[in-house]
Design brief:
Radius of gyration: 20 Å
Number of helices: 6
Helix content: 40-55%
Shape: elongated
Strand order of the largest sheet: 2-1-3-4
Distance between the termini: 43 Å
Length: 187
């Protein structure tokens, strides 16, 4: 099992890749992450050269091959490849019938599989008790992380508390979580 700092780094990377993959659109999209990196590099290069270059000069984006070569060179400078331990990621989807939720889950699956991790999913089918049970089950299975797709905070507070107690990161995507859900009672 990963130590807490490495787990957080890996889970943060998984989250970033999920957001990028979810934003890519349909599965028939032909864009790749290397072109995203190239765009980011071009934007950075354009911003830095724009301040020092004459207004008539234009910046040409690197080709995919140039961007790949630059990435490989940077990776080689950082040291040898590191084998990540296999983790299982639990995904609790509020409603798998939703196209938006399907995209978010597909992005999560793709990101986890790119890291060599396993994914186990639960479709709560819009039922808050299934959402809660799914998270609690993943906590009891000691998964590496839990990805919550659009479940309202009030529906999963017990599971969130149990995950926090066992140092299992929970990443919410597709919905806002309230760190202090309202109680049904008044004081």
């Amino acid at each position: 099992m990963l130590r807490a700092p490495w787990r957080r780094v890996c889970v943060t990377g998984l989250f970033a890749v999920t957001l990028i993959a979810a934003g890519c659109g349909s599965s028939s999209s032909s864009s790749s992450s290397s072109s995203t990196s190239a765009s980011a590099t071009t934007t950075s290069s354009a911003a830095s050269s724009a301040t020092s270059a004459a207004p008539s000069e234009t910046t040409v984006a690197p080709t995919a091959a140039q961007a790949t070569a630059a990435g490989q060179k940077a990776a080689a400078n950082e040291g040898p490849p590191v084998k990540l331990p296999t983790e299982t990621i639990g995904v609790v989807n509020v409603l798998r019938a939703s196209e938006a939720a399907q995209r978010l889950e597909a992005g999560t699956d793709a990101a986890a599989k790119a890291l060599g991790w396993k994914v186990s999913g639960v479709d709560a089918a819009g039922d808050p008790t299934k959402s809660e049970a799914g998270i609690v089950t993943f906590v009891n299975e000691h998964v590496g992380a839990i990805v919550d797709i659009s479940n309202p905070t009030a529906a999963i507070t017990q599971g969130l508390a149990e995950a926090r107690a066992k140092n299992i990161p929970v990443i919410n995507i597709g919905g806002l979580q309230n760190s202090r859900p309202r109680s049904n009672t008044t004081s």
